[in-house]
Amino acid sequence: MTEELLQEIRNVRLIALDIDGTLMDADKRFPEINCRTLQACEKRGVKLALISGRSFELMRGFARELGIHPILAACNGARIEAGEDGPTISENTFTRAEAERVCRTLEDSGMYFNAYRRGKCYMGNPEVRPSLGPRYAHHIPGTIDDPRYPYETVCDRDRLWGEGLDGVYKFVALGAAYDPGFDRLQAELNDMNLSVSSASKRNKEFMPTGVDKGFAVRAICRELNIAQSQVMAFGDMTNDIPMLLAAGVPVAMENGEDSVKAAARLIAPDHNLGGVGLVLERHLLQKEG
């Protein structure tokens, strides 16, 4: 590592973090070193932001599990909250007409898909889900009864086409690894100029135009009056690339996609080893150690 990069890391004021495949290990747990180092960074005045394709309601629980108080940028930046109880910094959704176009295209494709809006996730073509194996077995209708932030998974086509297409943050097509159907969907929707990426080799995400994790970093920097050069970002999949490109110190996980590594200045050890924590402990926290 060059002395120039080390100095830039020492000047970091904001750490932007993907969750799945980055902060979490393969068992969907947070390695202890990740929790400990992020808590230490926060205590020393470094701001933290979780920037994920996940819903805001679920991300609140992750922040508590990590023991930190980050800004939460959900659905790849479509909804940005100052903390687990807000207030809302930014919110971007599809228009009703756009949502209907995307939903119809996804339905006609025959692929299983999800539509996310505030407090709800709608299952599309749910009859296809069992054919994808146990990976999505947890996708079942139900409600998380949080007094302030209830979250419902809905399996009802009438509700999807009724209430479900108002204020949609994100659509996600789900399938086999690198399913060719993903490319067909992207081609069919190409004229809409949507933000398209993947959080996994088994999905394709469609967000409103201009909304991605890079948008989230820029919005958070404006809110906190922090220069993008003072941002350190960690990610592993293609939906993380805009976030890495918006950060002065982009870090890719060893388990990440090759295209993500190409966008990084530093490679962190595998997520199962607590790669985020190892990098922070060695290169950021040592400045006051």
How would you characterize the overall build of this protein?
The protein is of the alpha/beta class. It contains eleven helices and 15 strands. The protein is 34% helix and 23% strand. Strand 6 (112-117) and strand 7 (120-124) form a beta hairpin. The longest helix has 14 residues, at 96-109. It is globular, with a radius of gyration of 18 Å. The model has no long low-confidence stretch (mean pLDDT 95).
Kindly list the characteristics that best describe this protein:
alpha/beta, 8-stranded mixed β-sheet, 289 residues, 23% strand, 7-stranded mixed β-sheet
C-alpha termini separation: 19 Å
Please tally the β strands and state the result: 15
Outline type:
globular
Low-confidence runs: none
Overall pLDDT score: 95
Q: Percent helix among the residues? A: 25-40%
Radius of gyration: 18 Å
Main sheet: which strands, in order across? 5-4-3-2-1-13-14-15
Coarse structural class: alpha/beta
Total helix count?
A: 11
The ordered H/E elements are: HEHHEHEEEHEEEEHEHEEHEHEHEH
| Major sheet attributes | 8 strands, mixed
The portion of residues forming beta strands comes to 15-25%
Write the layout of secondary structure elements.
Elements: H1 3-10, E1 14-17, H2 19-23, H3 32-43, E2 47-51, H4 56-66, E3 71-74, E4 79-81, E5 88-91, H5 96-109, E6 112-117, E7 120-124, E8 142-144, E9 151-154, H6 157-161, E10 168-174, H7 180-188, E11 195-197, E12 203-207, H8 213-224, E13 231-235, H9 241-246, E14 249-253, H10 258-262, E15 266-268, H11 275-284
Parallel strand pairs: 1-2, 1-13, 2-3, 7-9, 13-14, 14-15
Antiparallel strand pairs: 3-4, 4-5, 6-7, 6-10, 8-9, 10-12, 11-12
Helix pairs in contact: 3-11
